[in-house]
# Entry
Amino acid sequence: MKSSLLDELIDALRCLPGVGPKSAQRMALHLLERDRPGGERLAAVLQDAMARIGHCKVCRTLTEHELCRVCADPGRQRDVLCVVETPADVLAVEQATGFRGQYHVLLGHLSPLDGIGPEELGLDRLETRLDQGEIREVILATSTTAEGEVTAHYIGELARARGIRSTRIAHGVPLGGELEYVDRGTLSHAFEGRREY
Amino acid sequence: MKSSLLDELIDALRCLPGVGPKSAQRMALHLLERDRPGGERLAAVLQDAMARIGHCKVCRTLTEHELCRVCADPGRQRDVLCVVETPADVLAVEQATGFRGQYHVLLGHLSPLDGIGPEELGLDRLETRLDQGEIREVILATSTTAEGEVTAHYIGELARARGIRSTRIAHGVPLGGELEYVDRGTLSHAFEGRREY
Ligand SMILES: [Zn+2]
Ligand SMILES: [Zn+2]
# Structure
């Protein structure tokens, strides 16, 4: 039997993380019965976002512009660079700390076993930024997982080779923790407690 | 500061039930970083569903056609009518039982205190269906709340006045339920509704 449009909607909602068949059904019925304007707005914004949001050409975080909000802000410090793994990590640091410098988003981490080396991670872009001479401190804010540590070590060496100070966020972040899921207080303390690397 | 398209997407996702700021952010980043085709499909289906899904002109459940799948199916029994409160209840009955008859969806329940009487609930439509003479049994599958009971009673009287049999779904201990944890009202009903074994 051909599936109904309601069935299609329930199925389409399952692309959202953590949404199983039961919650997808509840979401579809809620929008149809109680919040059509909300559903229409979500459809429009979603279409727009999927079509127009790309990566910042400087730091690689998500943005619909050529430069993200941070890179385009003339009021931020230009001599401190915070290196993180994902755009979610940028949001977490912005929301939890008073950091007012620049970011570099790796969109991953070094993982030799998966064939992800410095080249695959586009570390040449980071080297170019370090070579420009403005940056005086690199904050290594990769995850405290094994891959995150390897990545931090590698980037720390890149900085050292250029005479740039590098610091690692304090191990207030629980071991094996992904930055995105760390509570604000821990993350804020980890920032304040960063040390020479 | 003008909000970014990512902020707008996170905000728009919050129209979904049970989705707070943290999960909305997680959903937005997941779609943007890992499932753009899923996000594009969701946007298209959502737009289509909000624009085209209305109510079946016979039973009032949700459908994009004039008649829903059940009402349009010539293979279903035409002499049994199951009365429920919401389209979600139709899905629940279809998924859980072997019921192969017709439905009538009230889209609510009688609630005199809120000014919802038989007229506001469109019970004239139901009376018209009962008057057509095809229906021989009305299954009262409204909720087992106070309003649901009042509604079931009222519709039972409409059936009785036309010489149509009406039945009420059994109240009792949920399957797999331990007696100790069942509320008193349910247990009391389960006792009253006991049958030969
Ligand atoms: Zn940027
Ligand atoms: Zn119908």
The helical segments of chain A are 5-13, 21-34, 36-52, 87-96, 123-131, 146-161, 184-192. The radius of gyration of chain A is 20 Å. The first strand of chain A starts at residue 54 and ends at 55. The CA atoms of residues 164 and 171 of chain A lie 22 Å apart.
